[in-house]
Write a structure and sequence with these properties.
Rossmann fold; 28% helix; globular
Length: 190
């Protein structure tokens, strides 16, 4: 696993050992960023199921100002911190060891907003529609924010979530499906 492009290009990242995570392959990671960027002019990123942190590190490498990485596993947060250290700009990352639900509550309470959200939950424990609804309703998404969902290809996500998240792209890579949503506030009828 490596950083594919941008400021940290070519730096090797550690991955978690064991069967509990499935790191995003470099091919899928490159495809995701080609679909949503490939580069950013600032912004804040949330990686809610960070695993080894590869997606959020790639986002910062490609121009995001800051990334929040959340994982409930101690081994994962340990690897995330080691991978962030490789970038030598640790101040551009915030790592939280907590559940996705607790992180969403805390981020909402803090009034955080994101331009890019990366969701790659464990396949057996997906609650993406609930979490996306909570993000949209909780004010966590900036106008035109992109949300990238990585799921098993058998999972079918809805075209729209609530009135503000619209699916703009869906692509399958082997057993993995990538679904991208754009957040747009409802137009007020005057």
């Amino acid at each position: 696993m490596r950083v594919i492009s941008g400021e940290f290009r070519g730096r090797k990242l550690k991955s978690l050992s064991g069967d509990n995570t499935r790191p995003t392959t470099d091919k899928v990671k490159e495809s995701i960023f080609n679909m949503i960027g490939p580069y950013f002019d600032g912004g804040t990123c949330l990686d809610l199921f960070a695993g080894s942190g590869g997606l959020a590190i790639e986002a910062v490498s490609r121009g995001m100002d800051h990334a929040y990485l959340v994982d409930r596993s101690y081994p994962a947060t340990k690897v995330i911190k080691e991978n962030i250290a490789i970038t030598k700009v640790e101040e551009r990352f915030t790592v939280w060891k907590m559940t996705a639900e607790a992180a969403l509550r805390q981020l909402t309470a803090e009034g955080q907003q994101f331009d890019l959200v990366l969701l790659d939950p464990p396949y057996a424990k997906q609650q993406l529609v609930t979490q996306l609804t909570e993000m949209a309703n909780g004010g966590l998404l900036r106008e035109d924010a992109l949300v990238v969902c990585e799921t098993d290809k058998q999972v079918t996500l809805p075209e729209t979530i609530g009135a503000s998240l619209q699916q703009i792209r869906q692509q399958t890579y082997g057993i993995t499906a990538v679904t991208i949503y754009r957040f747009q506030l409802e137009e007020e009828n005057l």
